[in-house]
Amino acid sequence: MNRIRVACVQLRSSNTVKASLDHAVPLIRTAAVGADLIATPEMTSLIERESSKARAEVRTEDRDVALAVFRDLAAELRVQLLIGSLPIDTGEGRLANRSFLIAPDGAVVARYDKIHMFDVDLGGGEAYRESATYRPGEEAVVVRAGDAALGLTICYDLRFPHLYRALAQAGAEIICVPAAFTRTTGEAHWHVLLRARAIETGCFILAPAQGGRHDDGRETYGHSLIISPWGEVIAEAGRDPGVVSATLDLDEVRKARAKIPAFRSDVSFRPPSTP
Predict the structure, then answer these.
(1) N or C: which end of the chain has fewer CB within 10 A?
(2) Is the pTM of the predicted complex or chain greater than 0.90?
(3) Is residue 203 flagged as an active site residue?
(4) Sorting pLDDT into bands at 50, 70 and 90, what band is 122?
(5) What are phi and psi of 75, to 5 degrees?
(6) 27 and 241 in contact (C-beta within 8 Å)?
(7) Backbone phi, psi, residue 239, to 5°
(8) Whole-number Å distance between alpha carbons of 132 and 119
């Protein structure tokens, strides 16, 4: 059988890179016992909603302390390490919210910049304007990680199903959704959207999350999930930091798609007229 052992690391990242690394590294070490692929959440190295404070901690990719630490850690542990995202200085004014897939030799083998910016008003004074600080990415990414093909997404991308279908049609067997969902949106939508994306694509979903109240006052939902191509929850975390893991049989992707052959049923149609 074609199997891969995966782990989601759930974090409660801080508003300094040093504190976030002190928190993340021991959990990654724990996850490495028995895992081939480890995934961490969005903003693994820093959660700070005030732009000026965040920028004081952010560096260009070649100078980023967290990325260097994680590359060394992947090489030491001999694992595939998907860092859900780090804030990266692009040198062009706005930052990038960037995922990194790191190979067991410490090399960066893929990068993905979050495409969809979280610009929302949730009510009760809770509002986010991600595009004020971050530059959206423009390219979808599918990459090999050992025997598995990974599709890379980040958090708010989850609400755009056409991206997930494109990743699956490009060969993805596992789609990663590192996130820092708010408590408000997480309680309402996290489980149902992740299960829907798994069912729609016939892919495994690997969704490591931030969870709890952070130093900047933000509250994230947690509940890191691993979901089968049939939409079943295989593993789930609670709200606190920790690790969830599972062994995935990649043959289940083929079986799910054979039962529901939606990929072979795409049709062209005219868009509806404006009333």
Answers:
(1) C
(2) yes
(3) no
(4) low
(5) -65, -40
(6) yes
(7) -100, -25
(8) 9
**CB atoms closer than 10 angstroms to residue 103:** 19
Which residues face 39 on adjacent strands? Answer: 8, 82
- Retrieve residue 161's tokens: 């199903």
Percentage with pLDDT > 70 across the chain? 96
* Surface-to-core class of residue 23, CB atoms within 10 Å of its CB (0-12 exposed, 13-18 middle, 19+ buried): middle
Fold exhibited by the domain 3-261: Nitrilase/N-carbamoyl-D-aminoacid amidohydrolase (3.60.110)
- Taking the CA atoms of residue 178, residue 121, residue 164 and residue 181 in that order, the dihedral angle to the nearest 10 degrees is 20
Q: CA angle, 121 as apex, 115 and 123 as ends, to 5°?
A: 150
* Cβ atoms within 10 Å, residue 72: 12
SS3 161: helix
20: tokens are 């976030």
- Residue 114 is a catalytic residue: yes
To which H or E segment does residue 205 belong?
strand 204-207
Nearest-5° Cα angle at 122, 120 to 123: 130
| Tens-place pLDDT, residues 151-182 | 999 999 999 999 999 999 999 999 999 999 99
Task: For the chain, count helices (H), then strands (E).
Answer: 7, 16
Q: Which of 8, 42, 48, 252 is catalytic?
A: 42
pLDDT of res. 80: 98
Q: Which of 48, 130, 155, 252 is catalytic?
A: 155
Residue tagged active-site, from 8, 57, 114, 173: 114
